[in-house]
Write a structure and sequence with these properties.
Helix content is about 65%, strand content about 0%. It is an all-alpha fold. The chain has a single domain, classed as MetI-like fold (Orthogonal Bundle).
Length: about 290
């Protein structure tokens, strides 16, 4: 698996981008030359150079320091939302697919109700009720994200629970939780890992969108989406204030997408065709087809 992953330049590029971003977020306090929050109107809108590698923003804050801390905020909260999503979505999908019947009907109808709303509208409704803030934005995104995992996991479980090795496990005495843990879950994790990697980029974009709208991070927290919103008055005179955080968001989403595609090919030896002949859709063993943009 590792050899196929390293042979693909796109996958390796995604891995390097994500790795660099994670290191930046982890060591932001050591790399940042200034505190990202204090205002200094005497140093506002300084050009890049000297002690301010990327210059300062409209309130005199070091843009480079805010970018570094912004990586920590954006990636950290996106990762927490993903963990909550997996903690809810995987068990819900396992329960629905394995038990079937009434339990399956209740879970899937709840999933259908949530999916009936456009994502942004649903998030705006939740944040309109709870109020703006990073924690409320996390809750809104988690409420949206778990349903896709529940549906995918349920589909995988339905496709494998009547397989011969599952029947053999039942004959050998495996039941309930033991059967799910030993024989069902290992088939669920590879496609879920791919989807989770791709979703991290989507969560970063969603967090930035909500912060740009004033519903996520609140001043003076350094966050990329909010930094773009703060730079709107200077869009024509100092475009770098918007371009730099916007480029960081785009690079982050690209990195996670490339990494997710690489994991998809690495976990699917039969579907791997090399970097020059990447298939648009691959099939994992004993799992429904997943598309790269899932």
């Amino acid at each position: 698996m590792g050899h196929r992953f390293l042979r693909d330049p796109a996958s390796l590029t995604g891995f390097l981008i994500v790795g660099l971003l994670l290191l930046t977020a982890l060591f932001a306090p050591l790399l940042a030359p200034h505190d990202p929050e204090p205002v200094s109107l005497a140093e506002r809108l300084l050009a890049p150079g000297g002690e301010y590698p990327l210059g300062t923003d409209g309130l005199g804050r070091c843009l480079f320091s805010r970018m570094l801390y912004g990586a920590r905020v954006t990636l950290g909260y996106a990762f927490v939302v993903l963990m909550v999503t997996l903690f809810v979505g995987i068990p819900a999908g396992l329960l629905a697919g394995y038990c079937g019947g009434f339990i399956d009907g209740v879970i899937m109808r709840l999933v259908d109700i949530i999916l009936a709303f456009p994502n942004l509208v649903f998030a705006l409704v939740v944040l309109g009720i709870l109020g703006p803030g990073l924690l409320n934005a996390m809750l809104a995104l988690a409420m949206l994200s778990w349903v896709s995992y529940a549906r995918i996991v349920r589909g995988i479980v339905l496709s494998i629970k009547e397989k011969e090795y599952i029947a053999a496990a039942r004959v050998s005495g495996s039941r309930g939780f033991v059967l799910i843990w030993r024989h069902v879950l290992p088939n669920v994790l590879p496609p879920v890992a791919i989807l989770a990697t791709l979703d991290l980029g989507k969560l970063v974009l969603a967090f930035s969108t909500l912060s740009f709208l004033g519903l996520g991070a609140q001043p003076p927290t350094p966050e990329w989406g909010m930094m773009i919103n703060d730079a709107r008055p200077f869009m024509q005179t100092f475009p770098r204030l918007m371009i730099i955080p916007g480029a960081a968001i785009a690079l982050t989403v690209l990195g996670f997408n490339l990494l997710g595609d690489g994991l998809r090919d690495a976990l699917d030896p039969q579907g791997y065709a090399g970097p020059a002949d990447r298939r648009e859709e691959t099939r994992l063993p004993n799992a429904p087809a997943l598309k790269g943009g899932a």
